[in-house]
Design brief:
Length: about 400
């Protein structure tokens, strides 16, 4: 049975991944070995059978005894461990949620409902690094898969509304703490029906700006009752790293750009953090290559994959179905607010929302593992053979 080392399974993305793997019975198909950077020797997660005590996630020899390594540990871990493993001669498959390797030439960004041919081509060429994409990019592509599949998109702009979960568990905790402290500041006024709303607003603003709210995770800015119009580092040209990913990663997933010999699709973004707990939303302006009737476009979008759902452009349906609250914890990707714009028949608006922790993070990794298992490529590797002082897998 294929040996799969799992790292980072206790964290937020890792926990969602474990839930999905249990639900889909993935553990029935592998010999899992769990690793940790901090809790070596503990029991692993409940998967329906006994597993070995948790191993040391920095033990290169123990890691290299696996045919596949599946990690949600983060970029710092990948930066430290991945090159050491490769230098030691490990040739197994590396599946990773971190962004570290995404744009490397020897790595594929995985989103198989959209780019299975790209993945299959990479496997045939012997590529060993398979990386989950940016969460907003993955959710957007799941929704608009059909338009890209038909090569209907000439260019696109994305206005994102990204939840606290995109930053991690501590960001979600900080947001909730901020909400609680703001509520406590005006609780007595809220309880009095005769209180003036402007007085409540004044006290809320005071709390937002007096520096007493916890703001370490949001870089000194409160998110509760607010928004943050910048996500991730400055690329030096007025573009944030999160916005750059929108174009760069989308085209790599689709197999477009100079390295593929296919013209890239221009995609620009403006990324904003909002006070939602989980799920990222996006408002999209799409320049189509030709004027396609709206009902035909809706059909193309709806039929592209089994998870996309077209929501009619109606007030009640939009308010009920196109929200983070409606999508959290669910696999489907709703796409709505579809209408032609006043600029002309080739211009289309759309709004989509997806669970950042499912299709935006955990699910592409789980499905990549399944692809390796179903293709049988991982089972043909020889695990844990020692050559000199190096541990070699599948050499």
């Amino acid at each position: 049975m294929v040996k799969v080392g799992v790292v980072g399974w206790r964290g937020m993305v890792g926990s969602v991944l474990m839930d999905r793997m249990r639900a889909e019975h993935d553990f029935d198909l592998i010999e899992p070995v769990f690793f940790s950077t901090s809790q070596v020797g503990d029991k692993g997660p409940l998967i329906g059978r006994e597993t070995a005590p948790v191993g040391n996630a920095r033990d290169l020899k123990a890691l290299a005894a696996n045919d596949i390594l599946l990690t949600c540990q983060g970029s710092d871990y990948t930066t430290e461990i991945h090159p050491k493993l490769r230098a030691a001669g490990w040739h197994g498959y590396w599946i990773d949620a971190a962004r570290t390797l995404r744009m490397n030439d020897d790595a594929v960004i995985v989103l198989d409902p959209v780019n299975l041919p790209v993945i299959k081509n990479a496997l045939a060429k012997g590529v060993k690094n398979y990386i989950g994409g940016n969460c907003t990019v993955s959710c957007m592509l799941m929704g608009l898969h059909g338009l890209f599949q038909r090569d209907l998109v000439e260019w696109m702009t994305c206005m994102t509304y990204q939840a606290a979960s995109g930053g991690g568990a501590q960001h979600m905790r900080e947001l909730l703490t901020q909400f609680g402290l703001i509520n406590a500041e005006v609780r007595d006024l809220l309880a009095d029906p005769a209180s003036a709303i402007l007085e409540i607003d004044r006290k809320v603003l005071g709390k937002l700006t007096d520096g007493t709210l916890p703001m370490e995770n949001f870089s000194g800015v409160p998110l509760a009752g607010n928004l943050i119009p910048w996500i991730d580092k400055d690329m030096g040209n007025g573009v944030s790293l999160e916005e750059w990913k929108g174009g760069a990663e989308t085209n790599k997933i689709l197999g477009r750009g100079a390295s593929f010999g296919v013209p890239a699709t221009p995609i620009d973004s403006l990324c904003v953090r909002i006070g939602a707990m989980r799920c990222h939303s996006q408002a999209l302006t799409i320049k189509l290559r030709k004027n396609v009737p709206l009902d035909e476009l809706a059909g193309i979008i709806a039929s592209a994959n089994e998870w996309v759902r077209v929501v009619p452009n109606e007030r009640e349906r939009s308010m009920r179905e196109l929200t983070p609250a409606a999508v959290t914890g669910r696999m489907h990707i709703p796409v709505g607010r579809l209408r032609k714009l006043a600029m002309g028949g080739e211009y289309l608006s759309a709004f989509t929302v997806g669970d950042q922790l499912l299709w935006g993070a955990a699910e592409p990794l789980r499905r990549m593992l399944r692809i390796l298992l179903e293709d049988g490529v991982a089972s043909r590797r020889s695990a844990g053979r020692t050559v000199g002082d190096k541990t070699v897998v599948g050499a």
